[in-house]
Amino acid sequence: MRQYNEGSGIKVLDRAVAIVAAVASGDKSLAELSDAAELPRATAHRIATALEVHHVLARNERGEWSLGPALPSYTGGPSPRLLAAAAPVLRSLVEATGESAQLYQLTGTTRTCIAAEEPESGLHNVVPVGSHLTLTAGSAARVFAAYAPVDAPFKDAELKQVRDDGFAESVAEREVGLASVSTPVFQPDGALVAVLSISGPAERLKPSPADKWGKELLAARKQLEGEL
């Protein structure tokens, strides 16, 4: 078995790297993590718990350790696990609503579309994967501003309403003729990992995108969080 916990001379760092490397190959129970990192269970648990505080690791509903949301934010890329979980959710949203669906992650002073699904035909909104959009307008921007420390022009009362409702909506705010409704997606540890959105022509979604598709959006969020 590869020795991860030797090398730099800084024992706690080497052990932390051993634990992250072990989890990177697949979710691990404490016993599996201890064996893979070649550490006593108490040591593995203590370090893994500390890494969880910084969202480098997370735990699923079975109590197994997995990679947390912090690592993708450091590397600039989305989690493969998040993308895999989101794909069927986005497809189901499009089938249910006939509108476009997107998943965004916070990337510094912008939000980046990391996954998207569009209807096969008809007038719809297209957000290419990899697009960097503003944090100053749009329903997804409002959600990020409500749950993350970003510089945005929204009023405190608006952001409190987003947190109370669990979603935000906008009509012709970021772009004329476009409307959307968005909701936060959380990791099991409560960390904001992404924002899920439905968007389409304002003529179809106004006066309230949330009244039209909010129920479907919140159900999709619940499904995605369950997969995470």
UniProtKB/TrEMBL annotation:
SMART domains per UniProt: HTH_ICLR
Native source organism of the sequence: Corynebacterium ihumii
Descriptive protein name: HTH-type transcriptional repressor AllR
Keywords: DNA-binding, Transcription, Transcription regulation
One Pfam assignment: IclR_C
Domain of life: Bacteria
All copies of domain HTH iclR-type, residue ranges: 10-69
SUPFAM superfamilies, sorted: GAF domain-like, Winged helix' DNA-binding domain
Lineage, uppermost ranks: Bacteria, Bacillati, Actinomycetota, Actinomycetes, Mycobacteriales
Record domain IclR-ED: where: 63-228
Keyword Signal: no
